[in-house]
């Protein structure tokens, strides 16, 4: 297929969204209740990586960056993920703690957008989660200086084997450069696909009385 044929094809790709609507009367007062329901349904539908979310941060020059990480915990206090504290996203969050999360559950014709600010998890929270991970994943955390330039994959594989031998016995220590964040959210938007592009969008925004809910035009 030529470039022009590809462009013509993607320009005309479309389908109807027919899986159902979202009505104001059915919304809970707190967004975390609806998020929990939707995530549970995404898991029940056996979607690939239902906890995968796009994490957006901004660098010191105002350039947005995005990457996909896995949600590891959520409650009314926030949404939790873990990372190398020397990574690009961690350095950007140190400069600007504001963050955006996006959950793309396309098969269910749903999206969730989360806005908030991060706080670092306590060492105890990080340690508890780190030791719940598979042993090879714990070693993997030691291997990679995330976002740094490397000349070949073999460097990573060699370091992994070296550390696997080193940590053959006993508990693997928590790296000082590995941690996690809690996203203290103040805005959550739920998007449900609708027929004729009349999608249902509801915006939750935190205020002094709890949560304000608005319907948005599609």
Automatic annotation (TrEMBL):
Residues reported to bind substrate: 14-17, 72, 129, 133, 137, 197-199
Top EC class for this record: oxidoreductase
Annotated pathway: Cofactor metabolism; pyridoxal 5'-phosphate salvage; pyridoxal 5'-phosphate from pyridoxine 5'-phosphate: step 1/1; Cofactor metabolism; pyridoxal 5'-phosphate salvage; pyridoxal 5'-phosphate from pyridoxamine 5'-phosphate: step 1/1
Domain Pyridoxamine 5'-phosphate oxidase N-terminal: 40-165
GO MF annotations, alphabetized: FMN binding; pyridoxamine phosphate oxidase activity
Reaction equations catalysed: pyridoxine 5'-phosphate + O2 = pyridoxal 5'-phosphate + H2O2; pyridoxamine 5'-phosphate + O2 + H2O = pyridoxal 5'-phosphate + H2O2 + NH4(+)
Cofactor annotation: FMN
Residues reported in the UniProt entry to bind FMN: 67-72, 82-83, 88-89, 111, 146-147, 191, 201
Domain annotation Pyridoxine 5'-phosphate oxidase dimerisation C-terminal: ranges: 178-218
EC number: 1.4.3.5
Function: Catalyzes the oxidation of either pyridoxine 5'-phosphate (PNP) or pyridoxamine 5'-phosphate (PMP) into pyridoxal 5'-phosphate (PLP).
HAMAP family per the UniProt record, alphabetical: PdxH
Name of the protein described by the UniProt record: Pyridoxine/pyridoxamine 5'-phosphate oxidase
Organism, as annotated: Pantoea conspicua
Origin organism lineage: Bacteria, Pseudomonadati, Pseudomonadota, Gammaproteobacteria, Enterobacterales
Gene: pdxH
